[in-house]
Write a structure and sequence with these properties.
Elements (H helix, E strand, L loop, with lengths): L8 E12 L2 E13 L4 E5 L6 H8 L7 E3 L4 E4 L2 E2 L5 H7 L4 E4 L3 H4 L6 H10 L6 H14 L5 H5 L8 H13 L5 E5 L7 H18 L2 E6 L2 H7 L2 E6 L2 E7 H6 L4 H8 L15 E16 L6 E15 L3 E5 L6 H8 L6 E6 L2 E2 L5 H8 L2 E4 L3 H4 L6 H12 L5 H14 L16 H13 L5 E5 L7 H18 L2 E6 L2 H7 L2 E6 L2 E7 H6 L4 H17 L1
Parallel strand pairs: 3-9, 3-10, 7-8, 8-9, 14-19, 14-20, 17-18, 18-19
Antiparallel strand pairs: 1-2, 1-4, 1-5, 5-6, 10-11, 12-13, 12-15, 15-16, 20-21
Helix pairs in contact: 4-5, 4-7, 5-7, 8-21, 9-21, 15-16, 15-17, 16-17
Length: 540
């Protein structure tokens, strides 16, 4: 690609600050870059580096407390856009500059069918009939590999998995064939196979349309796969830039080197064969009621988990992997008693279905769960001390408040957070710190078993490494059993004794981590591993 022509997007001397209760916070400092037609430029950095703030400033999507310096310049296709009216910006947004956001569920209207939402995106900018808009939507749904496109058109957002929602958002961003596509962490929530498909899809569409892409991510495997040039940001500043392959082959800055090397490595010390069985599931089925006939006689069901059996020993980690919609999280919730299930589930040799409410309450002390989204699972109105010690309040109501807070401090120290964090609120912490708070909350009751449902998928790679090492360390010291649900195979490989591969509610393959990763038997497993480690090896 030639860069002798004028840049399509030219950002110069961009500073962004926010007015807060604690004074002015500088989020972006002296950022300048150019993006050329048909080029892919990646902006890489960890949470808080200023990469998303920079692109939101370009799109004029910053909150009211943001301040852009008067000397900043953003020129799109020869036109300065920082001084345009909101109406003028609306004609550019979604038409000439498309944007894919990180969290699709918050970007879609929950009360509107997804087909109508994508059709609306094209009808806002083009005078076309409803039937023609629908045809274009279905064409794009097919292009982004959405299953059963006609049925999908009429569904609501909550009826899709995270990966499917992200594909809908990509269709929406591409429907007007924009000149520039800003993709803000578009593959973070996706399975590795879908991630590879989406990246290839974006490349394919880029070649077809000649579209320029500004790709924002913390995942360097994705960057190597996609980017012509790379900008590395840290604490609001650009610290290194370079051609994609050259930057990976010879990074100059220590921070860039750290990012490139932040790939989970190693494997778990095996659990002794003699270790007692902690969790046992036999022929577990979980089904959802879809609909009834008008008179309620006929019922339709969807089987999300189909006759699965598993065991987990004390001190062992069982990794459960599979794509979105494979049933892995549903199975985990069934084991925890959060969803009704058929079959037999025994924890510490107690069959859950036969326990009284009092016995179940006692067992709950011994089984804990850490969720994917630490922000969504922590109450914003409670201090960290109250959040972490909440389980003690429930299970040990006679314990003194001072003792509870002391136990909370110890739990926070165990996850390497300062005891002073106890009086602060979740919004004052980064994503990685919030996940450590969630782990401290699970640990305070000294459980024998923790179910970890995608606990690292929303985290930067270096933060992921910290959390993985922390989980390994805690497991060794406390001899806790983990069921670790994830679509990130490199994390599963580093943490697990055994691995179970799921697809469409069934177990495709299971065995030791060594066997699954080095000698997989099934084509589906081979496909998952190939997609995952192609991206990893691109970085290594």
């Amino acid at each position: 690609m030639s860069q002798h022509n004028a840049p399509l997007l030219d950002v110069s001397n961009l500073n962004v600050s926010f007015t807060t209760n604690d004074g002015i916070v500088d989020a972006v400092k002296q950022v300048s870059f150019q993006l050329f037609k048909a080029e892919t430029l990646a902006i890489v950095g960890e949470s808080g580096s200023g990469k998303s703030v920079s692109t939101n400033a370009i799109m004029r999507l910053l909150p009211n407390n943001a301040i852009i310096n008067s000397t900043a310049s953003v020129i799109f296709d020869g036109q300065p856009i920082l001084d345009l009216s909101e109406k003028q910006m609306q004609s550019i947004r979604g038409d000439r500059i498309g944007m894919i956001f990180q969290e699709p569920m918050t970007s879609l209207n929950p009360f509107m069918r997804v087909g109508q939402q994508v059709a609306e995106a094209v009808r806002c900018h083009q005078k076309i009939r409803k039937s023609e808009a629908k045809r274009k939507v279905l064409e794009l749904f097919n292009l982004v590999h959405l299953p059963e496109i006609e049925a999908a058109y009429n569904k609501f957002p909550h009826e899709f998995s995270g990966g499917q929602l992200q594909r809908i958002m990509i269709a929406m961003a591409l429907i007007n064939e924009p000149d520039v596509l800003i993709a803000d962490e578009p593959t973070t929530a996706l399975d590795v196979t879908v991630q590879a498909e989406v990246l290839n899809l974006i490349k394919e569409i880029q070649q077809k349309m000649g579209m320029a892409i500004l790709f924002i991510t913390h995942d360097l495997g994705v960057v190597k796969h996609l980017a012509d040039r790379v900008i590395v940001m840290k604490e609001g500043e650009i610290i290194e830039t370079g051609e994609g392959k050259a930057l990976f082959a010879n990074p100059q800055h220590e921070y860039t080197k750290m990012l490139i090397n932040s790939v989970p490595k190693g494997s778990k010390i095996p659990t002794p064969e003699s270790a007692p069985i902690l969790v046992e599931a036999k022929d577990v089925w979980i089904r959802y009621h879809i609909k009834s006939s008008f008179f309620g006689h006929k019922h339709e069901y969807f089987d999300a988990v189909k006759g699965i059996s598993l065991t987990l020993k004390q001190g062992e980690t069982l990794g459960i992997v599979g794509e979105s919609g494979s049933g892995k999280s549903t199975l985990g919730r069934g084991i925890m008693g959060l969803l009704p299930s058929e079959g037999e589930i025994r924890i510490k040799n107690q069959q859950i279905s036969t326990l009284s409410e009092k016995e179940k309450q006692i067992l709950k002390r011994d089984i804990q769960m850490v969720f994917q989204d630490p922000y969504g699972s922590l109450s914003p109105r409670m201090t960290v001390g109250e959040i972490v010690s909440e389980g003690l309040t429930v299970h040990y109501p006679k314990m003194k408040a001072s003792e509870r807070l002391n136990r909370a401090r110890i739990a926070l120290e165990e996850v390497r957070l300062e005891p002073s964090a106890i009086n602060r609120y979740p919004h004052e912490f980064s994503g990685g710190q919030r996940q450590r708070i969630a782990i401290a909350r699970a640990l305070i009751l000294e459980p024998s078993f923790i179910l970890l449902d995608e606990p690292t998928s929303a985290l930067d790679r270096s933060v992921q490494l910290t959390v993985i090492n922390l989980l390994k360390d805690i497991q060794q010291r406390r001899n806790i059993g983990y069921i670790f649900i994830s679509h990130d195979l490199s994390v599963v490989k580093a943490l697990s004794d055994r691995v179970m591969v799921m697809q469409s509610g069934e177990v495709v393959e299971q065995g030791s981590a060594e066997q699954i990763f080095h000698a997989p038997q099934q084509e589906y497993t081979k496909k998952l591993i190939a997609a995952s480690f192609d991206l990893e090896e691109d970085v290594a």
